[in-house]
Amino acid sequence: MRPENIFLSLVIPGPEHPGKKFGVLMQPLVDELQELMKGVETWDASLKQKFTMKATYLWSIHDFPALGMFAGWSTHGILACHRCLGDTNAFRLTKGGKASWFDCHRCFLPMEHEFRTQRNAFRKDTVVLDGPPRKLTGEEVEAQMNLQVGDRLTFNKEHNWTHINGLWQLSYFKKLLLPHNIDVMHNEKNMGEAVWNTCFDIVDKTKDNVKARQDLALICNRPKMHLECCEGLL
């Protein structure tokens, strides 16, 4: 990530992101990647001679919202995870109304892990014996994407595909194991701020509120954290 190793490939004009039209801005880059895959004549300044340079796309790094725009999979709603795609146990909170992935992590643990059988440590009266969602191959993802993009009836119910990224035009793109990645800095920053604001009860920023406690009572077996009606306040 040193400055001398970074090449500016695209500049997005204007104060707003292009959304689904991002592919229009990406097309020149895709065309150049197609050419670079075959090889282009390049001057080697150190050896004072020409050589055939080849280059391929390896992966992209984004914050979460930008990843959705770049990958074509919306990062909003209960199907926001681009790893699980439509195979997820995420749900929407009854009182808070927000999408939640609480207790969706235990399926990724080893089958013998003690957390799997802790019936009331996470969701109430729940053990997890299932494995993680199967990771689809690039060919399977491409087939699913081509079938579901534009299907408004199943959007945010069975899939979250919004558009087809132009990078799929690259013949090797479906073979990549990690085509899109989340920027660690943004991920740590957002999580750290949420934990800090909740632990120190920062006004208007804490995640601990009335609706959160009401949802906690519905989801978890933690009676000490339930709301209690104080006498004299009725």
Key terms for this structure?
elongated, two-stranded antiparallel ribbon, alpha+beta, about 25% helix, two-stranded parallel sheet
Provide the fold topology.
Elements: H1 22-38, E1 40-44, E2 49-53, E3 60-62, H2 64-71, E4 91-92, E5 99-100, H3 138-148, E6 180-182, H4 184-199, H5 210-219
Parallel strand pairs: 3-6
Antiparallel strand pairs: 1-2, 4-5
Report on the architecture of this protein.
With 234 residues, this protein is of the alpha+beta class. It has a domain of 130 residues. 26% of the residues lie in helices and 9% in strands. The chain is built from 5 helices and 6 strands; from the N terminus they run H-E-E-E-H-E-E-H-E-H-H. The chain has a two-stranded antiparallel ribbon with strand order 1-2. A two-stranded parallel sheet has the order 3-6. A hairpin with a 4-residue loop joins strand 1 and strand 2. The longest helix is centred in the N-terminal third of the chain and has 17 residues. The chain is elongated. The termini are far apart.
